[in-house]
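Late entry, evening session. Most of the bench is empty. Finally got around to the prediction I had been postponing all week. Sequence below, unchanged from the version circulated by S.P.
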Amino acid sequence: MLVMGFMSGTSLDGVDVAMLRTDGEVIEVLGPALLMPFEDPERAVLVGATEDALDWNGYGAQPKSFAAAGAVVDAVHQRAGLALMAQSGGKPDLVGFHGQTLLHRPKRQLSLQIGDPQALADALDVPVVAGMRQDDLRAGGEGAPLVPAYHAALAARLGLEAPVAFLNLGGVANLTFIGEGGDLVAFDTGPANGLIDLVVQQRGAGRYDDGGRLAAAGQVDQRILADLLAHEYFRGQGAKSLDRYDFSLDWAWEYRLEDAVATLTAFTAESVALAARSLPHTPKTWVICGGGCHNPVLMQALRDRLGDCRTADAIGLRSDFVEAEAMGFLAARSLRGLPLTFPGTTGVSAPLTGGRLWRPATHAAVV
């Protein structure tokens, strides 16, 4: 079927949307894709809701800001979906909707994504699958990462020789290891761009380290780096996931911006290298996707530690749209009752499907 997938990451750049043709197992065609940026007032609403979510932390009534943020998420997703449908000249059979994550606390079975799947289904006049983390959380899994099944399908499509690893560098970094027998191991390795972005934004120096220029001009503080790597998260084994706000940045105010960014960039690379040492075998190739793959300083740091690292763009994929494509792929799997998560990816006890289907109101009335 022709599916459309959406992803709105914690970097708050905007909404990625992509089409592909798939049955949830084999990727037949990668269709068009686009980014619908958040306008500055929209981003401000989402930043405010994210800050409120950290204070709320899942206890008591939800902050009022969540409703306004949800309205922004709905409006931008609808703009993005309609724009891609106009660009492609067609309508998909199914949509995979992730929403905007405000808080992720898997140990409490809590992962909050805002956005209204019914509103999206009605606006696009297409059935929508959403809530793909929740069944896994209720079954004792981490609810993340969700993308490994799609990474495995991409590896098969490209004929990549196993073992191979996919590394997504979003706000948080997560990896998928695909073994020779197709076995999957996946987990969040640590922060990727999220902490770097926060420091840059707090200093009024833009929204991210464009081209790695700040990191290249700074010096890594080895003491701070060691303190960051001593975080309890890195002592955990097996399936694990985190929120980019799980790490404190209080120390960064005492440092030049360039030195803070250089240290955080090294932290991302070192935490990935630490994760690599826990894998069953050494990957022959690392495929790097997400916004971090456009940072040459971070990419070189990863190559120094991991060896053969290739951006997804370099091997014929779309680095910036892999996660959006994955949401469409997972929607197709959900519709067919196929597993979305696995013991090796989220720690759930058995392979588990997930997600719920929302039909457009016009269709629901007919049924």
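Two things to note before I forget:
The chain has two domains: 2-142+353-366, 148-320.
The two ends are 21 Å apart (CA to CA).
Will write this up properly tomorrow.
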